[in-house]
Amino acid sequence: MRTPIIAGNWKMNMQLATAAELVTALKNDLAPLAASNQVEIVLCPPFVYLPRVAELVQGTRIGVGAQNMYFESKGAFTGEIAPAMVADFAQYVIIGHSERRQYFHETDESVNKKIRAALAQNLKPIVCVGEALETYEMGETDIWVRGQIHGAFKDLTAAEARALIVAYEPIWAIGTGKAATGAGANAVIGISIRGALTDLYGEAVAQAVRVQYGGSVTAKNIDEFIVQPDIDGALVGGASLKADEFSAICRAGLKKFE
After folding, report:
1. Torsional class of 78: left (φ above 0), alpha (ψ -120 to 50), beta (otherwise)
2. Tally of CB atoms within 10 A around 143
3. Exactly one of 40, 97, 131, 224 is catalytic; which is it?
4. CB within 8 A of 206, min separation 6: which ones?
5. 145, 74 in Cβ contact below 8 A?
6. Is 258 a catalytic site residue?
């Protein structure tokens, strides 16, 4: 069985004091769950709080992730963060989030470059794919998501592909309070995402890659997603900013074993 993974994407929220309070509360509540190895838990704060969060979770099995990184190792790229800088504090990195694609013009090509740069630093990429509302309403989700998978995984070996985590985040469900249905998300993941991975690497690799759902995930609706056979966890946005809410979502990962 694929180990469920729950990652909290804090986006551009928190300040140092509130970030520390949140992590302390989560550590007290979730450290035993993380130590059990039954559910993988990752916190993804803004860059400036990575060192403090890494310090606070030290000695636990709660992971730390960055929300982005650049694909060059160093140089005159003012404002960017290199993969090795991320690796000093984190084990994971979110790549290709729809907000990065929308507001900062990231493409499948740049996503692929970032994935390869992350793997070179032994970081675990959480690669985001998903369709806009217009694409969804036109019935073109499958072709769109398959295209993003092919673009993201271009030139990766089967071994590298296995190391990636994919997050299916329908753009129309992110931050809108309008989540996809569990069955609908499972169908896209099973048919489009695992289908594209089967095309590239074969069935064994496609079944080994973990795929999360993201998009208005809450403690109230997580059960609908986590029980689906092709959904291996969640990439959580707003609900990850509340200790009790995120803790409940993480504990829901145990339902995979029921």
Report:
1. beta
2. 12
3. 97
4. 194, 195, 197, 198
5. no
6. no
pLDDT digits (tens, 9 = 90+) for 92-145: 999 999 999 999 999 999 999 999 999 999 999 999 999 998 999 899 999 999
Q: Is 97 a catalytic residue?
A: yes
Q: How far apart are CA 102 and CA 65, in angstroms?
A: 21
Helices and strands (DSSP H and E) totals, the chain: 13, 8
Residue whose entry in the numeric block shows the structure tokens 């609706």: 221
Q: Which of 73, 74, 57 is nearest to 65 (CA)?
A: 57
The whole domain housing 214 covers 5-257
Is 32 in contact with 249 (CB distance < 8 Å)? Answer: no
Phi and psi at residue 95, to the nearest 5°: -130, 135
Query: How many domains would you assign to the chain?
Result: 1
From the list 106, 131, 169, 224, the catalytic residue is 169
Q: In the numeric block, which tokens belong to residue 231? A: 């959904």
Helix, strand, or coil here: 6? Answer: strand
- 91 in Cβ contact with 124 (< 8 Å): yes
- Dist CA 85 CA 70 (whole Å): 10
Q: Classify 211 as helix, strand or coil.
A: strand
CATH code of the domain in which 140 resides: 3.20.20.70
Query: Over the stretch 34-55, which tens digit does the pLDDT of each residue have?
Result: 999 999 999 999 999 999 999 9
